[in-house]
């Protein structure tokens, strides 16, 4: 007989690996973009307010067929703005481009200008969410970005940002000029994230760096914060994250690049401020950018430092409104919870953040809050808001202070070196806060839309988007024009501004005035 020897059983062991680095980064960046979209979605049909009532039609009509005309049009108006104490040529170009994009959405998708404006603002907020995440990772990571998994900071940050995106009054960038100020804030943060990552300074980079510094001085007030913030990022990351001594930090390529940016920035900034001071000393200047140095600055500063806190902003958003929508709260909570669940599952695959890196991030975040608050406290408008005890009211500084506050929250949590379950609990808490922010945004929209002026602005937007060339359509537009003047008293100045804006759009779309019956 032949013995049958059984074959040995070989156990197969499968190694289950986590998702690749690229997938972790894609999920983190996607969350950074989607959370702001969920929180701001209730504002998508908010009626245009303030300058938006006119500028989207004026700029859209002027530049729809020739976008390149934005450059000479802005430069030609520069002397007039300087005489009024204002110098933002590159920022005004971006503002006109954002208005053009909102107007063009009507041609491409048939959207009225009110929806187009909010869509552009929402896209800019999504860009800002991504920029906040990139800055945070640039600070806490000692290696090259995107070559290693993101840290646990990346899992928490998007929800902290979502919680602070609140329509806290009509001056908040969530409501007014969101496309401009959210994009500007994203530019500030991306510059601060990019400069410390410069590994080598080459000769051909000197000219672009000098020009870049000059461009920051010619953009708008928020971009003035880019270089002080980048300076702190270079110092904090070099000292605490990379563990270098101060001499090495100061001699590094990022520090030398910063020096070149400052050299390009300061001559333009100083010259412009001298010219503005001279003009404003001879007569009144534009109130919105007027600098008021007095004891009110000291009173306004601490208020603006905390104005980003969600409860304060919620109070401003619901002021004068009714009940909150349980439906919106439930929908927002469901969408954000789904994103939060994926982020919580990713935590065990993300890099840890040590105390030195968390200290560096906290320093950068606090710097961003302080810089934005200091800029705002110099404004006469903000000083009046503080004097009226409207502490959570949004202003243009909110575009940088609110992200700074979000990063400060994340950094403070990581300073305690929490375990991953505690970070999961923090994500859940921030998800709830972001859902409340979405609900207060809906309440703000409902409050605004209760106004006859807002409802009329929406009807005007529809009249431009669905332009009726018939005599009956012209008669309806003339009736809207008359109703606008009845609800918005302003005399001949208002009439000229209305006709200038709406005629530009009407002539671009149909080759006729908005109200030809009255001409």
Summarize the SSE layout with pairings.
Layout: H1 21-40, H2 52-63, H3 70-76, H4 78-83, H5 89-109, H6 113-140, H7 153-163, H8 178-194, H9 206-217, H10 226-241, H11 246-251, H12 253-282, H13 295-306, H14 310-317, H15 326-346, H16 355-377, H17 380-387, H18 398-415, H19 420-449, H20 452-465, H21 471-487, H22 491-510
Helix pairs in contact: 1-6, 1-7, 1-15, 1-19, 2-5, 2-22, 3-5, 5-6, 6-7, 6-8, 7-18, 7-19, 8-10, 9-12, 10-12, 10-16, 13-16, 13-17, 15-19, 16-18, 20-21
Put the structure in a nutshell:
This is 4-amino-4-deoxy-L-arabinose transferase-like glycosyltransferase. By secondary structure, the protein is mainly α. The protein is 69% helix and 0% strand.
Describe the structure in your own words.
The chain crosses the membrane at residues 115-136, 148-168, 174-195, 207-235, 255-276, 324-344, 356-378, 399-416, 422-440. Keywords: Membrane, Transmembrane, Transmembrane helix. It comes from Paractinoplanes rhizophilus. The structure is a single chain. The model is unreliable at 8-16 (pLDDT under 50). The chain is globular and about 75 Å long. It has 22 helices and no strands. Helices cover 69% and strands 0% of the residues. With 519 residues, the protein is an all-alpha fold.
